Amino acid sequence: LVQPIQKMLKGFSPASYEHQVQAMIDDYATEDLLPQITCPTLVVHAREDNTFPSAELEFIADQIPAAQFTIIEECGHMSPMERPQAITALMRLWFKK
User: What is the domain range of residue 81?
Assistant: First the structure.
């Protein structure tokens, strides 16, 4: 898992990384917009993700009228890299709806 992440990070320019960090610092308040999302939405949380607490993602799912909240076990913030088969299976089920 470390090598793919290192490769990905090497692809970021310093300006791109700075922009991402600044966006997190600015913490844009978008909660008011969540109820306006009208399409079916899958909100996924990785059980071991310490970046975003489960409660925050559950809140997001609760605010979106057609949202479904699910948790992927045994992975963290990089769940597509950590458990690609689980993510793929989840997405396939979701898109069949």
Answer: 29-96
